[in-house]
Sequence to fold (689 residues):
Amino acid sequence: MPYENFNLSDWPFRTSADENFASVWAGRARTKDQLERLLKKMMLVPKSGLHVFWANFGMGKTHTLYHLKYRCGQSGRQIIPIYAAMPKRSTGFLELYREIVQAFLSAEMRDYLGRQLVDLGQNTKGASVALHPMFSKSPGVVKSLLAIRNGDIEETTAAMQWLTAQPGLPSAAMKSIGVTYRIKTPEDAINALSALINLSLWGGKKQKQLLLMIDEFQRVGELRPNIINQVNSSLHTVFNAHPTGLQLMLTFSFGKKENVFYLLSAELKSRAEPQSISLDVLGREEAVAFLSDLLGQFRINKDDPRPLYPFSQAAINTMLMTIAQKKTLTPRRIMLYANHVLTEHMLNAPNSLDEISDETLQACIKELLSGDLDTDSAE
Amino acid sequence: MPDEELEKAIALIKAGNIDQGGKILVSLLKQNQQIERAWAWLYVYVKTDDQRIYCLKKVLELNPNHEKAKTALARLTKQQTFQLEPSPSAQENKLIAPKDTAEPTAKQKRRRKPKPKPEIQESEPTVEKSTKSAEPHVFKIENYKVVFTKPGENLFAKDKRTPNDFPEIDSGMYYGTKLVIGGVSITSFDYPNCVEEGRTLHKSQCYFCEFFSVSDCPIRRDPTILRDVIALYSQNRSYWQEYQERRDEIIDAIYSELKAHGRPLHYEILTKIVCDRYPKLKLNSRKIVHIMGWHTGKFECIGEGVYKAK
Fold:
């Protein structure tokens, strides 16, 4: 829905990550450069990598992952992005496995894995794909993928249930897709995940890379030490099983970057890339650049000389100064306040073409700061 | 009969059973107010100085040559005049005398337990200080039991140590201490007024004591006990203060780390963080979870072992 009087093609402010806006990247040029270099490195070098991504609260970590996913999509399938979030109050690696496999079973990935199976079948010259060494430790994976490929609804449902290690799958359903065991232990899950990764990476003239992004990995900090060890060691085993082609990205969001050290096992820490990605709070100039860049990406008329329109420069300065006096400047917070001011302005002066003045902004923001619930911590 | 009753009452009072003896005296005096010895012994039973003065005056009415009554009356009258200008310590003590009741309070009843063989009464207590003059706080106390317990433990729980296990108080540990004298526990937080005053009180003030009766008070018998109890307890209070300071430091450390992290954390992870950053506090997961469990104003348990800063 365009907002022509503001010269905006869509509403630019989102306070939670929106996959539809994954293509948008505003400001934070250093991080953008870091991400671009990371993608290029992945395409240049076949070796696997473990990347640690830390972000402060409200800095757009999830949006950054969506943007990475979007950028991977532009790489012509050389980098296959998989996005999964660490489940809350997990009881073991099996739950994280479920989240990852759910992402593998998205419609797009199902098609891709199906095509890979067909290519593999053609390559094996008559031998069954199920006998391919990549499935030796988890033969059920290929059988369930073949069942999904066949298209029968009942078989597809059973196969998806089996792959995602859902409890309560009847033996008859398992029999119908030709599997004889269930995924019950972390070892089963590791083998199944390895088989899926192997199949994703198989073939192609160039070495493919699978970018496995695990969001909210800081949630392991809420788990009992034995579960943390299980999750860490399982990831470490999966990573070790793929010396090439696997890019594992673990994201953390909390106030102190140094605490990442306490949430990773020694094995994972020793495998982590020396250069981590960080998204820390914005400075005043970075915040102005972020806003003008954000608004610029939604301009209908790109030639508008006013980069902050419908805000005046003075109004933005006041807004940022007011926020910075009490809180840190984060993209989420800036968008929250800008959204509030702009919607108030729309209500007070519909179809107005005037810039939002300093006085108008102050009147809007004054009442906000007194009873504000927003703090510098997690929601 | 009245003579027998009187002798019985006096014997009871001498044996420390003041309440029972006093009641007999009151009933005797209701029948006949002319018994000089009854008034003299009622002096021990009554609770207020006014009542004591009244008793002494009655004794002197019946026998103007009663020297002891004269002296006691003179001292009490003088003391009353003095107490018209309240001293700070008296104000602090907030000693409020029971007005007309001669019944002992429930607390007195609980604490004034006549012991079959009180350790103090059998032999005079000897209190020896350690020979090391550099460690004035280390006492060796014989004849009465010293019980050391950790803060947080019930000081009145069953005694866990014998006098032979007399502890050496090292600066790294913080003990709450109680002394068990004649079967009565006194702690560094709950002790007779004479410990607060720093001197042996007048007998009349000792009637208010909730710990010992005047007749079997070990502190009255041996003032050295008082001196050492005061020293031991003032040392304990300083330990307690140190302990509180350390506890506050620990709470601040845990709280600041959780607050800076901004997300809930399992206490095991939090322990690793706090131990690495504050090695001097010498913490372990048990201590940390204990502290967070107690200070619910600062920490909130949001799951099994998971805490966040409020």
Remarks:
- The beta strands of chain A are 49-55, 79-85, 209-215, 246-253, 277-279.
- The two ends of chain A are 29 Å apart (CA to CA).
- The CA atoms of residues 18 and 221 of chain A lie 26 Å apart.
- The mean pLDDT of chain A is 87.
